[in-house]
Amino acid sequence: MAARESVWARSMPVKEQLTVIRRLLPYAKPFKWFFIGAIILSGLISVVNIYLPRVLQYFIDHYLRTGNATVTIMWYFAGLYFFGMFVRAIMQFLQNYTSTMGAEYMLENVRRQMFQKLHRMGMRYFDQVPGGSILSRLTNDTMSFSNFWALFNTLFTAFFAVVSSFIAMYLTDSQIALWLLIFMPFLGLTIWYYQRYSSKVYRRMRERLSELNTKLSEAITGISVIQQFRQEHRINGEFDHTNDAYFRTRQAMIRTNSLLLSPLIDLFYALGTVMVLGIFGVRGLNGYVAAGVVYAFITYLNNFYNPMTQMMDNLSDFQDGVVAGSRVLRVMDDPTIAPAPAQHADPDARITRGKIEFKHVTFAYDGKHPVLKDVSFVAEPGQTVALVGQTGSGKTSTINVLMRFYEFQSGEVLIDDRDIREYPAEELRKKMGLVLQEPFMFYGDINSNIRMFDDQISDERVREAAKFVKADDFINDLPENYRSRVIERGASYSSGQRQLISFARTIVTDPKILILDEATANVDTETEEMIQTGLDRIQQDRTTIAIAHRLSTIQNADLILVLNQGQIVERGTNDELLAQRGYYYDMIQLQNSAHAK
Question: Where are the bilayer-spanning segments (predicted)?
């Protein structure tokens, strides 16, 4: 915890912030005309802001002071002023609309690219990064990332307003305009200090928010376990601790913004107003000062500092956006991608028979500590190969390598005598069917969960697949049959029913290779007997790799591999292994004695 605190407690150097900004600019490039249009409109608005005070100044000094103002002249200048205000209002609307829409389009683009990147990343990334942290970066960070672009709108508006206002003040009275520059070093020092200190605050706040989302995700996902083991008090305590930490960082942000943003600019504006009125007052004691000049100068001074106030207010969004942008870029730059086909892969390669061969395969999740060591075996087309062993022996790791969820370090994995890395990923996913111990159900209906939202799969094929695995028995008893609603994770169905739907989901694609990862572990005996016939039919003409805790379900396998600490220690049929009286025999005896009790 201390190491992480030291990383997130430091401020973000200016060079790093500029690097983040430079990296973020390409995401806005497709929508550059929105931002260019906003910049042009900002320049035009600043011109109108110079024009408006000049209209009133001329009217005051040339008509009101001399007593030559008539009703016609008053209406004429009122019309000019109203026209300028009307034009400015339209341009402000267009400028705000174009900049905001550009930021929204950019936000949608970033989220889409980030979501796509997450689905290209390897399983190792999701093993290491909590789901709540990923969710925080995809939602909260990208939203702040969008707000960050709003500052550029304000920045250009402020730039044009400050430059045009200073030019107008200089043309009105150059001496006073130059005197006002005395405050600029102090303003620059304030901005520098805020940027340096606030980046540290926002980095802490973003990390705390990520931790808060992680706690929320875990608490909601594991609510049944929490209630079952009466862990509510502990979970509430942990959440309160994390929430309080996030609250304290928010307090620090509020204190920083309350002191160093608009209040300080308002102070500089007040001091500038005092200076301007003081100098004009001294001049008035020794001569004549035109009222219109005083009005115009004070208006320009307000136009000079007002956009600075807005800019400083948005500076908090800028710091938040830069920090959030760095977190988004960290995901986009992460090299942990899903194993890709070899460069010389044949895009037309097809799996036709389903033969599987491991040749001296060694695999480690971290690249250093092997969990599979020199694993070799052959599964001929149509055969069933079962993997058995104690927890941690390497069964699931073997499947992870075969499914190309992870890249293996050495050896060869062949399908139909061709290196697995020479097949397109689409072909592997199409010809391999995976049934997990815990099937995941998507929100929708049974029909969509079986076809996995693939419109090319007809309703007839869905029904045939369900009937094939004996799932149609319970589906037809439901009020809406295949259109019956599936709520989150399929909570309204039993584990056996969910597993049957999972079987149908796999079979509907007609895979050549079937992988069963403890597929009947959570199914009761009655349901297991019901689907066993379906499983036997499923495995016909398909190569099957099966992991099973219940050894009785794989006794008819063509080959049984017994793994221990990542190595195959025994291999053979059920009868051959029993005759050896080794690991497999001991496992059978242990399981039989457990059932006998």
Answer: 31-52, 72-91, 148-170, 176-194, 258-282, 288-305
